[in-house]
């Protein structure tokens, strides 16, 4: 039995609120249950130095957690003077995932930075960030098109993400914090609408996991993906 | 004429939403018009090293701005590896202001940290932070009392803050960003309900200001204070 | 009774020694009693990146305290790896104050950096820094004129600063350390010769202060200003 | 055809040289072809603060790359003043993987730090680090037993790691740098001798990968695992 | 011919002004001609962690240069966020040199930190720092004795330092900046009154130097030492 | 009697293995007995900003120590966030020494960086780094010539280095760690083949040393130099 009473294959309530703040070219508040992340996509002319003159754009992400997004207050990374390893690892993952949504050549020499800031955490902040960040990214691309700053459409495909794990021996999807902190295995899956895999990151927390368990978890992720892509399309007004 | 069409003595719409997130002992979203700041007050047992064994508590504040709270994206301070001078100056001001609300002796050896994170900026983020942070602080103190962690009541008085300035020759209150960026003089005032002054920080941006202008600005701040204290009491369910 | 035996409206002995070191374009040792600050103004061609091509110059300040300028040794900021919040706040104040002395358009694309390094501290280091820094700044401007690097005169007006506060219930001017550490209210005022105000920063350390106390303190500052401007003019050989 | 002429299921030559340096309690030079990593396991009494008094030990890893381990010189992280995101991500992975080898309760209050420093890089430095680091870790545990610092045997199981990927459409194992930089998909797998999975980290570099490709890649990793565990047992003098 | 007109064996005018500032237990302004360094010796109870419980004290030094001590302004190390290699090298040298003056066992568990801050630089700042720092150190020791914080006398011997070099083919002593920046060889020598050597640091800037040149330079340093020790004894009121 | 049984004038076994790793333009493993340092010389087009357009090249060095190169594990400098004073001092010494080998004008606008990373430490890591680094530097220069990137020969002379010291009253050469940690005096000498001195850095650890002892130590260094230059020439295939 899951602490929340959910079925193993049941995600939390997913919300995607567009235009959440007014300055960003794309601004989405994503909620996976009590996990809330503000995803702001910012468009800037130019690309990082190492990409200059290559005729392509860049998509990157930064991740942060408000100090009291969690049960106990965490030290502010700006005050500690550096981003922790977990933060860097997560923002690298988000960036890679979101780049799978975009044809960088068609983006032209623009950089889109997607800031994912966790307002409230209850497990799954990186998967929510990817799912919400992708919607913000689409809005930023639409802004570029509307402003006629680019020709053509650099948008390739929607990308979404969900966690799966083995909790008390049962594979379950979209773990909340009580499940996440007690799970034997924890896996984050990033998917495309067409059923392709972008990232699979599985970690045995206690005992090793088997190929069979891996398969069951991937099935769960695939099932949840249908729900996530529906929510993204709905938010963006895209037909399936 | 103010860009927003407001009268010189008219503040923006002030909102104070308590229990905005679920983990913090006090959590308030404060809005001064389009300026939105999340103020989370966290209670931790113990005090900083230099206060240990002195039989008193501590109240402090930290301030941050989400990278895209502003018109153009600002670099993330955690990524740059340090908090800027403006950030440090603001959080020192908020901390001093909030300590005027509390009898630190009666607080006992607890530290309350008030994190003020700007979700959306449109001028006046420090005054909104103080005004909202004070409400979050009261909730954190109530938590300590409810949990019977302290005896007595360390709460002394409400504290609120508003900006005043001279915009195109006219003294006005609660400047928004278009006014703030064009003002000749900019002053932040922190007040108590009884009409006392906690902080007065006036800066001539272009020409010097006169004693007469200072007086007019303080009158405006005092007037706005009535409104701010009413909103704080209303939010907290305190009678005047 | 003040610890030093001074009258409430009496400043400490003010000294301004020009050409104190030999490399800087302006070099002034300023003493407010036992508080001694070396103010070196350095001229450099060019302006910060964000000002380039705007046809104007820049004036900025940096502030530091020798580790043993104070009663007990403070950690060296260079060794700790960052400037503290107090340091950044003070140098931002000094910079803003000194810019009120200069017409940046007439300065041309030069940057003048005024380094204020505290040799010995006894209260009022920031007000001494502004008062002495302004004299060093004038010398740096004269250097630019003498070397025919600029045409016209970017100097606008003298700026000086003094602290006022409420010590044991009595408003006093130019607080020394024993007063400063015991004062109920502490205010730093930056003024122009014409009686204008550039900065007013008042802080209630213990109890709030009233409008009436604020007025008395501003009167005291104004009175001390006459003395400070006389010393600046005298040092610079300017007639009143 | 692979650039090295290897078969898809063929690893590079694997070497594990124990006692490579003389100070560390476990010191192993591991080579996966031209990739060479020095893995030094250091035993220190005590555990990190957050584990004190819990009656268990700790195993952690740090990872570094000599500046000229790669084709072009990379900046020295010590000189840049921080470890990059890639470094932190890799050392977190190595640490998690190695902890799967050890019963931390039986380790007692000792910390074993495994430093993995890349002498020469040609792809697969993290998988070599885990495979070699595990052997160094076993030597460090044997040291604790030999010195009678612990009773019982905290060693649980060997852990090894290999990369798999899709290179020009063909799934291959143990990618070298030319393959790695051109691969469509790149996956690192950490395994136990019993066939269990500890970590699976797959990333689509260009196109998404399918469940079928994932399965083929895991088969390849499993096959290489047999070779890796044989080399580890051989180096340590353990019978299968 | 030396730029200053001095003879090869002639030092600049040496001044040692004690009690230069009022807070430090030892405070000496040392001048070697136009090079001026403020040396403040601070006494603190306790020793660094690695010396605790060993029944001995510690003497250490920190070195800094005011940003405009030099011809052109140097970046403030506190603002850059770290001390440069040159600074660290110099303060390590000063610390080692000064420890030769003291019997650390007899000092007891006190730390004396000698801060050497360069007010004005004209070559030889490290040798002036050692020479002046030693006098400040003696004053700090006397303070400990006067306050009866220690028994016995930890002072062992005076230590002084001077630079020597080969300038346009001629060995000279106590190089000023014009000589220093043009010298073929530059050597700093730290000596005891008894003719012993504490540090010899010679560097060929252009061509290598010979054993014969080294000998001549050491003779020059020895000659200057007589002058330096006389000045130190004179300042401290010690008979030869 | 030396702990190793060596004669006072006897160096440890010196090894210089060229082409130790495959990416660097010059790669030498140098061993002075158990002290092993990997010296990689990297060629990069361009020079530091302050040398641009001056028609010359640059040679610099960086130094690092693997965390477990020593008896007890040292903190990783990259993780601590800065290079220590000892590291910076050593790499500045190595850089100066190696520049004595090269005619920077003839090098053209190339930078050669020599990374000296200590794999195993047993005293004398800086002298081994210079001796091995010089061989790597020669290989890097040969690479530039072979690739016809420069005309002419920027190589001037071989440079080598050895430590000397007074151990239990006897001057000895090439101190290993047990000698180094107990020596009264420690001196590092950098020499040219022609008998010239590049650097002499002598430090009294306990008692001061005399001119006579200095002379004896320099004689020992000169004697060892013959051996070191022979090994360098042998490794490089240069006739005496």
From the structure above, extract its key features:
Ribonuclease PH (chains A, B, C, D, E, F); tRNA-binding (chains A, B, C, D, E, F); homohexamer; 5-stranded mixed sheet; RNA-binding (chains A, B, C, D, E, F); transferase (chains A, B, C, D, E, F); 240 residues; RNase_PH_CS (chains A, B, C, D, E, F); alpha+beta
What does this structure look like?
- Six copies of one chain form a homohexamer.
- With 240 residues, the first copy, chain A, is α+β, with helices and mostly antiparallel strands.
- The first copy, chain A, has six helices and nine strands; from the N terminus they run E-E-E-E-H-H-H-E-H-E-E-H-E-E-H.
- The first copy, chain A, has helices spanning 77-80, 85-99, 104-107, 125-146, 177-180, 211-236, and strands spanning 14-18, 26-32, 35-45, 58-65, 110-120, 159-167, 170-173, 185-192, 197-204.
- Chain A has a five-stranded mixed β-sheet with strand order 1-2-3-5-4. A four-stranded antiparallel β-sheet of chain A has the order 7-6-8-9, with helices on both faces.
- In chain A, a hairpin with a 4-residue loop joins strand 8 (185-192) and strand 9.
- In chain A, helix 2 (85-99) packs across helix 4 (125-146) and helix 4 packs parallel to helix 6 (211-236).
- The longest helix of chain A is centred in the C-terminal third of the chain and has 26 residues, at 211-236.
- Chain A is globular, with a radius of gyration of 18 Å.
- At the A-B interface, strand 3, helix 1 and strand 5 of A face strand 3, helix 1 and strand 5 of B.
- Chains A, B, C, D, E, F: Pfam families: RNase_PH, RNase_PH_C.
- Chains A, B, C, D, E, F: Belongs to the RNase PH family.
- Chains A, B, C, D, E, F: Keywords: Nucleotidyltransferase, RNA-binding, rRNA processing, Transferase, tRNA processing, tRNA-binding.
- Chains A, B, C, D, E, F: It catalyses: tRNA(n+1) + phosphate = tRNA(n) + a ribonucleoside 5'-diphosphate.
């Amino acid at each position: 039995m899951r602490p929340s009473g959910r079925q193993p294959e049941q995600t939390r309530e997913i919300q995607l609120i567009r235009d959440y703040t007014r300055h960003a070219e794309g601004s989405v508040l994503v909620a996976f249950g009590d996990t809330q992340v503000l995803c702001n996509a910012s468009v800037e002319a130019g690309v990082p130095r190492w990409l200059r003159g290559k005729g392509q754009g860049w998509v990157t992400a930064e991740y942060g957690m408000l100090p009291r997004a969690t049960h106990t207050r965490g030290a502010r990374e700006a005050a500690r003077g550096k981003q922790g390893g977990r933060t860097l690892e997560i923002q690298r993952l988000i960036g890679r995932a979101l780049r799978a949504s975009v044809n960088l050549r068609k983006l032209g020499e623009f950089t889109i930075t997607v800031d994912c800031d966790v307002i409230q955490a209850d497990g799954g902040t990186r998967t929510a960030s990817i799912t919400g960040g992708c919607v913000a990214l689409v809005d930023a691309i639409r802004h570029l098109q509307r402003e006629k700053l680019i020709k053509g459409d650099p948008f390739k495909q929607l990308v979404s993400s969900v966690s799966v794990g083995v909790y008390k021996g049962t594979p379950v999807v979209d773990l909340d914090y009580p499940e996440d902190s007690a799970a034997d295995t924890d896996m984050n899956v990033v998917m495309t609408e067409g059923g392709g895999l972008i990232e699979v990151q599985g970690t045995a927390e206690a005992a090793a996991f088997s190929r069979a368990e891996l398969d069951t978890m991937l099935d769960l992720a695939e099932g949840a993906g249908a729900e996530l892509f529906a929510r993204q399309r709905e938010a963006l007004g895209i037909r399936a």
